[in-house]
Write a structure and sequence with these properties.
Largest sheet: 5 strands, mixed
Distance between the termini: 42 Å
Radius of gyration: 23 Å
Shape: globular
Helix content: 25-40%
Number of domains: 2
Strand content: 15-25%
Order of helices and strands: EEHEHEEHHHHHEHHEHHEE
Number of strands: 9
Structural class: alpha+beta
């Protein structure tokens, strides 16, 4: 998958406040650092949602491997990277750990004895074994499904050992970028987050935002084909921002399914996808912040009790 960065929507209000939505892919290991930036609204691919068989094959075919293995010199910064044979040894150890994580995930998905047998049958070919186990797991009538030692643990647990080797996709919207760029493009920042931050900064500096007039909306993932009904467009934008959790974002858009997802998210109190759509704050004496954007009001802020699900949850 590798690093990637794309500006999905870039808007500027009549008062000069810019709001930008990125779709970025980076190593999963830096997600915690990325999430420390509180001015961001974001939705991310979820280990709870992606099928284990799909995630296993992803880390076998296209794992994150550090571009360099810095040496330990104390403190948080890395010393000079390993070179030559020592760098190759570190790379092999990283992939050895990847294979162990994949084996563990397959065992949690099926059972240790079952995985051992399949690996014997495939002569230790981990990818062939993963493909076979994935197919058998999907077949409700398979011998795997009838085994008394079947574990079949939930995705939210089974995928976790794979996370250090995953690429991670996130949708991120913000009006304040200068602090993130200053911190994360600094030479002292970890290489993995510095790489994506530099890509984002370069695109941000080169891109020209589109003016959104007062009363208009910043609506990521919508197009002219979706019409001009603002209520519908807000719902479509929200649902499509949420779909990154399932890595189906690049699939064919279905407005009916998007509206159904919007309504389901609303009923369950999952409000983060409602933060990407926003409208300019107008009026000279209006507060410039309502949420974590400056000069823009998020769709979320138009929803009653958006900050406390207990006020709308039936059994709270």
């Amino acid at each position: 998958m590798a690093y990637s960065c794309e500006i999905e929507r870039d808007s500027i209000s009549e008062r000069g406040y810019r709001l930008t939505t990125f779709v970025v892919t980076f190593p999963r290991i830096i997600l915690a650092e990325f999430n420390t930036h509180r001015m961001f609204s974001r939705n991310s691919a979820s280990s709870r949602a992606i099928p284990v068989r799909k995630q296993v094959l992803a880390v076998l075919d296209d794992p994150f491997i550090p571009a360099e293995f810095g040496t330990d010199v104390g403190g948080m910064q890395a010393g000079p990277p390993l070179e030559g044979e020592r760098a190759e040894t570190a790379r092999k150890l990283w992939l050895k750990q990847r294979d162990m994580a994949v084996t563990t995930a397959l065992e949690l998905m099926s059972s240790p004895d079952y995985v051992e047998g399949v690996l014997l049958d495939t002569q230790g070919d981990l990818r062939r074994a993963a493909e076979y186990i994935g197919r058998e797991y999907l077949d409700k009538s398979s011998g795997l499904r009838r085994r008394p030692d079947l574990l079949a643990t939930t995705k939210g647990i089974t995928n976790r050992p794979l996370e250090p080797f995953m690429w991670h996709t996130a949708i991120t919207t913000a009006s304040e970028w200068s602090n993130f760029f200053a911190l994360r493009t600094d030479e002292n920042a970890q290489l993995e987050i510095r790489t994506i931050a530099e890509m984002m900064q370069n695109q941000y500096n080169q891109h020209v935002p589109t003016e959104v007039r007062n009363g208009g909306w910043h609506l990521p993932f919508t197009t002219e084909k979706d019409g001009d009904n603002i209520d519908l467009l807000r719902k479509l934008s929200t649902a499509r921002s949420a779909r990154v959790s399932y890595l189906t974002h690049d699939g064919e858009n279905d407005p009916e399914k998007d509206v159904a997802m919007h309504d389901r998210l609303l009923s369950l109190g999952h409000m983060s996808p409602f933060e990407h759509a926003a409208t300019p704050i107008v009026g000279q004496f209006q507060r410039l912040t309502d949420g974590n954007f400056r000069g823009w009001k998020q769709y979320r802020k138009f929803i009653p009790n958006e900050d406390d699900f207990s006020k709308v949850k039936p059994d709270a």
